[in-house]
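Need tokens for this chain, all 354 residues.
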Amino acid sequence: MNGPDDDGGWRAALDAFAKQIRWCESLGSPFTARLLTILADDIAAGGATAELVGSWAGDPVAGALPLRMAAALHALGLTEAAPALVACYPPHAATMEQLRSIVSSVVEEHRTTIRTFLSSAPQTNEVGRSGVLAGGFLQIAEETGLPLRLLEIGASAGLNIIWDRYHYQFGAAAWGDPRSAVQIAPCWEGPSPPVYAPVRVIERLACDISPIDLDDAAQRLRLRAYVWPDQRERLSRLESAIDLARACGMRVERGSAADWVRAKIRESAEASVTVLYHSIMWQYLPAESQDDIRVSLERAGDRATKATPLAWLRFEPLHPDSRPELRLTLWPSGREVCLAVAHPHGSSVRWSGR
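Here are the structure tokens for all 354 residues:
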């Protein structure tokens, strides 16, 4: 990335911050937008943030540098390592100038800790996306009438592979365990998914290039830190899902998505449907890995039968700035359908079904 004396100055970093500020505003986090504005101003002024950004190698957009900075500060607040932040972070209120003064001093004082935080890739596991994915699983169960064999890639901590342990409100229809500590009720538009479909999960496997160990307090902190501070409901839901996943003993395998899919998709169980699924991770895979996964799916699809069908369920944006779509391809027919368009965090869903 360019430094302050290069022709580009800090343009790449500032452009990345500006883009993320717009996303935070559109995704309902005005606090994070304000925080990133303060950090961007500090970069432009050559402050402590500029020094941290200047020592960070890589593309600031692809590496989600603005989110890393925001999460580093949130982590300092969550651990109360920076008490001044606690007093001005939600649910407390602070003016822009109060926040600016505190953030500037905290970045200056904790720059070593922040630099260490920036060196690790972002870790998120948005539980709200299960509110979108669950509709797809219900659709698959209805169309096949078979138990589900689940394979998730980019699974992070595995919180969305225990989706059937949560309770959902899909508009007028409900599904799941009403006693679950994780309650998901997106703003729903359109018909309900087939909540009457019989659902039974016979196997659940998950993979991530850098999985989260939920028994490690530091890794749990990273998950919590990447939830925006003014979205308290998301944070509460995440913490409940973490507790449930730890109680279930869910583990995510470490490995390359393409290699893992190639190996796992060859396996199948009689009288069940294998479901490969993922959410908001496809864009981070190299093009070669995407192609390899498609080839693995096509080959497995050629082998699929009515007794051992194959499904590819993905909640991903078709273009970088478009709303994510929930798309389903089901073999042996190979039919593809867009089931829904939804908010990236799953807070609102426009369901169309088949």
